[in-house]
Known about the structure:
Blueprint: H1 16-40, H2 52-65, H3 68-81
Helix pairs in contact: 1-3, 2-3
Amino acid sequence: MRTTHITIPVPAELHVNTRQLVATFAEALAAKFREAELKYGHADGWLWDDWEEECRRGLMEHVAKGDPRDVAIYAAFLWHRGWSTAAPVEG
């Protein structure tokens, strides 16, 4: 697999071990994203406006499945869109 390097700005005061965790986890997430792109044929469908509830359900399903990378990916989708992880309050 071909890779490119990016720089992620982190606070200088962040503990060196935590900086390494951030870098390592970002790398693992990028690899997992790519696996999903290849497996499901998706690229940037997470940018769609009409899947907030589906995204939230996906997050909860992946929590139950147990892979923290999948949970982080769905959390990233929600975070990017400004959507909450909480179920909507029905009234």
